[in-house]
Write a structure and sequence with these properties.
344 residues, globular, 13 helices, 10 strands, Spore Coat Polysaccharide Biosynthesis Protein SpsA, Chain A, alpha/beta
Length: 344
C-alpha cells in the first residue's frame, strides 16, 4: 500500500546532525518514506544515510546528486516521492514523535479522496537550543481546528504566524503539478516552496500540534542574521521571483490572493529590514530602488503594500515618512519582532 507521507531531507555536509532528523521520522516509518537527498556533500552524510538503509531498507532512501543548493535538493526529493503527501525536513531540524503519529492518523483518513486536503497545516517551534529557549508558532486564532475548510473560513493572519515550509504538508500530486521552480544555488527558496503549491490549494486542514522543531543557533545557518546580511543578493532574487513569477493577481478567491499578498509583504519587509540593518547609504539606495521597481512593475500591489497605518503595512512609512524618522523606527521594529518571534 502507498505510504502516507514522503519526507525529503535536503542535506549538504550534514554528518553532525542528519541522524537526528532521520531518527525523528523512524517512529512512523511504516507509513513514512524517508528520502535523504545528499546535495554533493564531501563529508559522511551519505555513509550515515546508507547505514540507516541497511537497517530499514523499506523505509529510508538516498539520492546522491551534484551540488545544486537547497531548492534543487527539495525538487529532487519531490520528484522521487511516492507518498500520498509530501513535506520537507531540513537536516538540522527534527519532528516531534507524538505529533508525527497524530499527523499520520489524519493522513490515514485522507486516503479517502472526499476527505483529502490539499494542504495540512501544523505548528512549528523555533528551538534556540544554545539559549535554552523555544518559541512555538500556531494558527489557532486564524484557522478552524481539526476539520477540512476552504479559504472562505480563514480568519485574520496574526503577525508572525504565516504558513512557512515548516508548517506545510502538501498533497504530493498537487505540489508536483504546481509548476514549482526552485532556482539552483540560492538560499531562502523555502518561500517559493510554500507559494507555488499555495496557488493551487482549495481545501485545507489544520492539525494543532507542535510538529516541526526548527533549530536556531549554528553560526553558519542560513537564517543567522550575519549570514543573511551577506546574502542580500539571494534574498532579493527570491523576493523578485515571488513578486514577478507568481501571478497572484490572477487568483479569483479574495482570501487566497490576500494571503499570498501578505506572505509576499513579509518577505519584502525582510528585504527592506536587512538592507536598512546594513546601515550604509548604498544599501539604503538599493532598498529604495527595489521599492521603485515594485511600484513600476506591480503598481496595484505596490499601492496595497504602502497603504494603511504603520501597524498594518510597515513598508508605507519607509516610503512616505522622512527618512530620519522612518529608518530608525523600522530598525527598532525589526529588533522587537526578532525578540518576540525568535526567527534568527
Amino acid at each position: 500500500m502507498q505510504k502516507l507521507l514522503s519526507v525529503a531531507i535536503p542535506s549538504f555536509n550534514s554528518q553532525d546532525y542528519v541522524s537526528r532528523a532521520i531518527e525523528s521520522l523512524l517512529p512512523g516509518r511504516e507509513q513514512v518514506e524517508i528520502i535523504v537527498v545528499d546535495d554533493g556533500s564531501t563529508d559522511d552524510t551519505s555513509r550515515i544515510a546508507e547505514e540507516y538503509i541497511e537497517k530499514y531498507p523499506d523505509d529510508v532512501r538516498l539520492i546522491k546528486k551534484e551540488n545544486g543548493g537547497h531548492g534543487d535538493a527539495v525538487m529532487a526529493g519531490l520528484s522521487a516521492a511516492t507518498g500520498l503527501y509530501f513535506r520537507v525536513l531540513d537536516s538540522d531540524d527534527w519532528l516531534d514523535e507524538e505529533s508525527l503519529h497524530k499527523l499520520l492518523g489524519v493522513l490515514e483518513e485522507m486516503r479517502d479522496p472526499d476527505k483529502a486536503a490539499d494542504l495540512v497545516i501544523t505548528n512549528y517551534v523555533y528551538e534556540k537550543v544554545n539559549e535554552g529557549k523555544r518559541c512555538p508558532i500556531n494558527y489557532r486564532k486564524t484557522l478552524p481546528v481539526g476539520r477540512l475548510f476552504g479559504w472562505d473560513e480563514v480568519g485574520k493572519w496574526a503577525t508572525g504566524s504565516y504558513i512557512l515550509m515548516h508548517s506545510a504538508t502538501y498533497r504530493t500530486e498537487l505540489a508536483r503539478n504546481s509548476g514549482m521552480k526552485l532556482p539552483k544555488h540560492t538560499f531562502y527558496v523555502d518561500h517559493l516552496y510554500v507559494c507555488y503549491p499555495m496557488m493551487k490549494v482549495e481545501k485545507m486542514y489544520y492539525l494543532d500540534v507542535d510538529l516541526y522543531r526548527y533549530f536556531i543557533g549554528r553560526a553558519d545557518q542560513s537564517v543567522n542574521e550575519k549570514v543573511m546580511l551577506s546574502r542580500m543578493d539571494q534574498q532579493l532574487k527570491v523576493n523578485r521571483l515571488m513578486l514577478y513569477e507568481l501571478d497572484t493577481d490572477s487568483l479569483t478567491n479574495d482570501a487566497q490572493r490576500e494571503y499570498l499578498y501578505y506572505y509576499t509583504e513579509i518577505v519584502t519587509l525582510a528585504t527592506v529590514s536587512f538592507l536598512l540593518r546594513l546601515h550604509t547609504k548604498e544599501d539604503e539606495q538599493v532598498m529604495q530602488s527595489f521599492l521603485d521597481e515594485i511600484q513600476e512593475k506591480r503598481p496595484a500591489y505596490y499601492k496595497w503594500l504602502t497603504k494603511g497605518p504603520f501597524t498594518k503595512h510597515m513598508i508605507g512609512p519607509v516610503r512616505n515618512w522622512p527618512h530620519w524618522i522612518s529608518y530608525p523606527l523600522h530598525r527598532l521594529g525589526y529588533q522587537i519582532a526578532r525578540k518576540l518571534f525568535g526567527f534568527n
